[in-house]
Write a structure and sequence with these properties.
binds NADP nicotinamide-adenine-dinucleotide phosphate; alpha/beta; binds zinc ion
Length: 353
């Protein structure tokens, strides 16, 4: 017995997405069946579909910023019941035995299972993401959406939010911390909001001269145009932490001098070889570091959601129907998203014959 699901899938690295019927497993005793209401659109969806990172399998149903309502639960589920408002992010399983899992950092588990474009080791089935009407997930990988948040606008917390929250917390951003965020898209706008809410002094470093007003509204105290040498020179030695959300290969050397002594630039956007080569001199001479960070664990995702519930923090979103997805990707690639697209899955149900 399986569950029939309607999704929206890419069938190759270049094909536009189309409706796609597939089956999900019947719930295991510890599974939650979720009716998907909204799903955010992450730049990783584009990278994955286009096979930028290798390992793409098709048909691919992207989507890992999932918010929905519990439809039913397996017999051993204790944390959820039908009707609950829940979220699912980038992970749907992990080994539960390794040191990363024990530390609550399931995202660094060698056996972690990604929400889409992965394989469930328990049954060998491919995983399909949130551009679909229903998803079945082990309850350990389901989070509770706090009351009072607009669910449409909360969906991006499940990836853009946690991916910036995790380094903000790891590097202990708080009152007085000088934080810079590079790139104002989905991740960048959440980093501004969260960094500000944690008490940091927040600077946006952007290539786009037109984003200043939005950035201020989102929490930036200062805007620096990365293309303007004088503006970059003016922030030399300033930042305790830089969160770099740029999706493509780019030169990190202009950013390193803007770090304070012992500061860290953490890459969350780009995955791959750095070019041109990194000059180690600013690192050695100023005990500066370049680091990376991947999404966040389940406990810290719940911590983020509870923080956002308490502070009324949600994403700035543009709602779309599934049929608008290719246009949304084009706009993201042109750095023209304000500041996260979110799919209303009612539009997918409406395409069902
Ligand atoms: N580490 C993780 O766990 C994780 C999780 C989610 C996503 N990601 C990755 O993070 C990256 C950003 O995702 P997103 O959804 O925030 O993307 P997005 O909404 O498209 O925003 C990216 C922003 O980066 C800037 N940018 C784009 N191309 C650039 C370039 N060539 N040089 C300099 N700046 C550039 C633009 O901002 P300005 O106009 O302000 O310059 C753009 O709006 C993607 O690569 C995604 O795959 C990583
Ligand atoms: Zn993502
Ligand atoms: Zn593990």
């Amino acid at each position: 017995m399986t569950i029939n699901v309607l999704g929206y899938a890419g069938h190759s690295a270049t094909a536009p997405l189309v409706p796609f019927r597939f089956e999900r497993r019947d719930p295991r005793p510890d599974d939650v069946v979720i009716e998907v209401l909204y799903c955010g659109v992450c730049h990783s969806d584009i990278h994955s579909l286009r096979n930028d990172w290798g390992g793409a399998t098709y048909p691919m149903v992207p989507g890992h910023e999932i918010v929905g309502r519990v439809a039913r639960v397996g017999a051993e589920v204790t944390r959820f019941e039908p009707g609950d408002q829940v979220g699912v992010g980038c992970l749907v399983d992990s080994c539960q035995r390794c040191s990363s899992c024990a530390a609550g950092h399931e995202q660094y588990c060698a056996g972690m299972v990604v929400t889409y474009n992965g394989v469930d080791p328990k049954d060998g089935r491919p995983t399909y993401g949130g551009y679909s009407d229903t998803i079945v997930v082990n309850e350990k990988f389901v989070v509770k959406m706090p009351d009072g948040l607009d669910l449409k606008r909360a969906a991006p917390l499940l990836c853009a939010g946690i991916t910036t929250w995790s380094p903000l917390r790891h590097w202990k951003v708080g009152p007085g911390t000088k934080l810079a965020v590079v790139g104002l898209g989905g991740l960048g706008h959440m980093a501004l909001k969260l960094g500000k809410a944690l008490g940091g002094h927040v600077t946006l470093i952007t290539r786009s001269p037109g984003k200043g007003d939005d950035a201020r509204r989102l929490g930036a105290d200062r805007i620096v145009l990365s293309t303007d040498r004088a503006q970059m020179a003016a922030v030399r030695g300033q930042f305790d932490l830089i969160i770099d959300t740029v999706p493509n290969a780019h030169d990190l050397n202009p950013y390193l001098p803007t770090l304070a002594t012992s500061g860290t630039l953490v890459l969350v956007g780009y995955l791959g070889p750095l070019e041109p080569a990194l000059d180690s001199a600013p690192l050695v001479l100023g005990r500066k570091a370049v680091a990376g960070s991947l999404i966040g664990g389940l406990a810290e995702t719940q911590e983020l959601l509870d923080f956002c519930g308490a502070h009324g923090i949600v994403a700035d979103v543009e709602m779309i129907g599934v049929a608008d997805i290719d246009r949304a990707y084009e706009r993201m690639l042109a750095s023209d998203v304000k500041y996260r697209f979110v799919i209303d899955l009612a539009s997918l149900r409406a395409t069902a014959p």
